[in-house]
Task: structure prediction
Amino acid sequence: MFILTEKVISTAIDNISGFIVSVVTAQTGKTIEEITEAFLSSETYMLLSDAETGYYWDNIFELIEKFKYEIIT
Result:
């Protein structure tokens, strides 16, 4: 049986963050350092890293688009 613990949520947030950075780096052609810095200071990451928001359950591709919108505007 799967039990949603703080450790599971933390691991999910880390994995999702890495995936988002990887995808956006590939899509934008910017360096991984630039995208990582931008992501870690973004509203998207702030919401994702707050377990209370439940963003770790959201559609990852919607999170990617939200982040890309943040760095483009």
Notes: The chain has one domain: 6-72.
